[in-house]
Specification:
Blueprint: E1 2-6, H1 10-22, E2 26-30, H2 33-42, E3 47-53, H3 57-69, E4 75-80, H4 84-92, E5 97-100, H5 105-121, E6 128-131, E7 134-137, E8 142-145, E9 148-150, H6 154-165, H7 173-181, H8 191-204, E10 212-215, E11 219-222
Parallel strand pairs: 1-2, 1-3, 3-4, 4-5
Antiparallel strand pairs: 6-7, 7-8, 8-9, 10-11
Helix pairs in contact: 6-7, 6-8
Length: 228
Amino acid sequence: MKLLLIDSEVSQADWIRRRLEIENNQVMVSPDWHTGWMMAHQSHYDIVLLAMNLQDSVQLSSFYLWAVETHDVPLLLIISPDTPANKAWVLESGADDCVGNSVDIRELMARLYALYRRKAGHFTTRSELSIDDLNVNLSEKSVFRAGKRINLLPREYYLLVFLMENKGRVISKKEILETVWNAADAIRPNTVEVYINYLRNKIDRPSTTKLIHTVVGMGYVIRIPDDV
């Protein structure tokens, strides 16, 4: 894998880089977020690793920018302080996975490979998904309904794409968590409901035709209602 590691702690970055390279990964290191941002836009990386202190307001602002602008590159955060609440927050805010800064290298490698497999599994030759008047351009990461652009956060976008790739099929909460978040044990129990509601507010509320449906006790499905 070709990895970009952004970490201002030089000794920690060097430790992570050396161990990842032992596993035959190509690792580029940036000591600051601005340089890392430029590197990410000048070359392709399979995964970006961001080391972040959640008590640093500048790093928090930078993380929001990464989460919104880099839909197509998985983000794995290495955080401190390392608490369950902090991990849940960064996952719900757009990170694809999260570990503490004292993570064992074997766990880190396992999570990186899981992200890499997940990214490869989501590859599709289709450039667009559509149902009724809802259209998603996969190349541009853009969403339109009835010709009007809809702005989605990264996790909302991934959830919508997953629903549309499986349109007409009821998908359980467990499957959504394992596919869209890839860390079902580290987020709040009502996370899926919250994000389904976000999508409904942006996708369905402005339209008379509701596409996102709850199947009680089973999960969620995106489909055109029978009475339309």
